[in-house]
Queue: 2 jobs
Job 1
Amino acid sequence: MQLTEYSKHDLKNIYLKLYLSEDYSLTEENSKKYYSILSDFKDSKLLEPDFRQKINNTLMKFNN
Amino acid sequence: MNLKNNILIIEDDPEINKHIKSKLSSYGRCFCVFTKEEAQEAISGNLRITHAFIDLDLDKKLAGLDLIDDCIEKNIKCAVLSSHESQLVVDKCIKKGVDSYYDKFDYFENYHNINSHFFEVSNSDIVELDDFFKYKYITTEKNIKENIKLILSKKVSYDRVIQIAGETGTGKSKLAQLLHEESDLTGDFISFNVADCTPSLIKSKLFGHKDGSFTGSKGNSKGVFELADNGTLFLDEVGEMSLEMQKALLIAIESKEIWPEGAQKPVKCNVRIICAGNNILEKLKENKFRDDFYYRINDFIVNIKPLNQRVEDIEIQACEFAKVFSKERGLGHMTFTRDALEALKALQWKGNSRELKNEIKRIIDNAKKPLIDISDLPESLFKNNSNERFKMPKEHIEYLLEHGYKEYIRSIENQIVEHLIVDNNQSRSKAGQDLKISKDIMTRLYNNYKKEERSLCN
């Protein structure tokens, strides 16, 4: 998946939605979708290191 | 929920919008919109929006930037939420006058503190000093004292820090002094400019030191805090203080005790703090200003407008300065003609009252007669001080000074009539509309033009 400037913006929103999902429940479909997208980018060098770290932390929390 | 606040949430992603609303719902009534057009409709409509949280990346094309202008125009306090990290974009937002800029991640991680700060500042007591300087500035007449009492009657206890906000030269120090004089405090008024002090010596200057506490220290010395005990300490340029000193100052204010350098025990000090500083919000964003100190000094704000936004004060102050300086020089009472005062009022005065005072001093020193006319005003005053929106060409200034104000104005009026009505064949009614003046005034200008034209032909 290519990362363009606009995709980065969407990615940040997707991260936020998963991060905030404790506040109100996401549908199972959306949870899986966001989790899958973030997993694809969690090691991408095109993202800033601290954003990658945030993604990894959130994915780990979601796994648990 | 604070029913006074109507909060507009502008975010195109519906789920994120919902999340933001959940964080803000206790601060006021929230209205959610998802596009720039919806936002503009809400801002200009009947909702009486007081605050706005704007997603900068609206519609994926920074559409939020335009909305900042719409909010500022309607006096809506706005915060920007963005995933954008470019410094250029951040600077653009700040230049547009946005109140706060938050990274979206930071916002959701720290929304409690951020919201408290954003809404607490907007709920501070803010006093606009429109009327204060309508009265005599450098005298201490009864009506100034009445205005001070008006400020103090807003129940500003001595525990509260008063921040005086205003450009340089607007009289912040003078106001701080007058606030002290009108209070019941028995101690002294002490003024301390942080920017004037070497950073390594600030702690010692503020809190004092004991003999031998650092290299070069001789004898015990009281700091300004102790000198202002039971009185007022005015801290100017408080934005220049280091983070460490801000912390020390905050502790001193809250505990009412100070630790002089080298002291074994604290000294009790009960001081009212009045402070002033520039660019504090920018420093906060750059992490050069502590959040907790920022909240402390934003509790009660007295706002002094720039002098060029209080044109009546220019006249009052110019006459008062002329009176004082002419008396000091034993020249008898000197003042200005109406034309000269109108010319002074049209200038920008970027240095505010301080600049005005210095220029009036110079004018009095060079004046040849007690009634100073526009032709007696130095040319350099217009060159350096003109309102940039109405920058006069050099030949206009030369004509003005050669022929006088009335002749200059008459010439301008005739040229306006010639351009609009004669050359462009407009009606007097339309020309008046374009110039935003009544038809009667436009008719008078036209008749004057025609009268002059006839006299030239004869």
Job 2
Amino acid sequence: MHEMSITQSVVDAVCERMPDATVRRIRLQIGRLSGVVADSVRFCFDIVAEGTPLDGAVLEIIESSGRVRCRRCGDEFETNDLLALCGCGAVDLELLAGEELLIKEVEVAA
Amino acid sequence: MCATCGCSEGSRVTVTDSDGVTHDHEHDHGHAHDHGHDHGHGHGDSNGHGHGHGDGNGQGSRTVTLEQAVLARNDELADRNRRWFADNGVLALNLMSSPGAGKTTLLERTVAELGTELKISVVEGDQETPLDGERIRATGAPVVQINTGAGCHLDADMLADGLRTLRPVAGSVVLVENVGNLVCPALFDLGEEAKVVIASVTEGAEKPLKYPHMFRVAQLVLLNKIDLLPYLDFDVERFVEGARRANPHVEVLEVSATRGDGIDRWYGWLRDRHARRQ
């Protein structure tokens, strides 16, 4: 499943940026419309982090909400459903937020 | 374990060329492996920065803000592929579907009928076996087979490796057949011009509603196997409505790769996209 790939990308990115660090904590942002399941990332993390500078690090995931704007009536609202309809009935919604896949920060041993 | 490509001990990503010569794909992790090729830096989006705050969290640690896109590395490689395609006037398409929707059959037909005119070459992606690559080879088109092992999708690095073997000529078309999977490939930019999603009438009309992430990123949906409609209870209009619900601007074409129904419209779309590239 792709969360394994995603989790490996997280570990790789941190290892590249700070190869000599000991990472104590890592905070990710995973948007609820991103197509990535946070629980699956949690499941994979320990396996993928083993033997790397992130071994033993605490994983925190912020699951951020989706936000859309209706292209027909301009209404903005929060939704975690990719198939949401606007109150006006329109399907054409512009995605403003919710697809984020970000490594926000890491806490490393000083 | 290299889980970026899904391989573990004893399982690996390989690339096989038209002569059946196979090499291991060394994944460009961006950290300390010696690949013998360019790593790049993978800084991702323009906000990427990493500086120490010196926040001092008590137990001798500090917080470093990264704000880095998780898929920065893949996106960087995808952009590199994209630039190469643009510089060489090559049209690249990423074909995705469930296993068994008819991607390879559609490709066989397309290559047989348009291969010379559009100088089509193919990148085949499967977990295992050279079978699909061999089917394409039999049509005479240049083809490279990528086997991902346990991997569930192609990524930009694998495509880059495949292209180095395939060496498409300027002004040609590269058709990438992704691993049969209606979920994972949607997330991984390969550097293509467009994503083409193939669904077949034997999969049920609710497919787009069930797999919105995939249908949302498609520029074109090909509804295949329409020759079987007389034998099925498949509501084409409902399927199209579902596709438009997931993706209001998507184009849907009905085709039969085996019998040829609607194939001219697919060819027209291909020719048009190819012409725009030149």
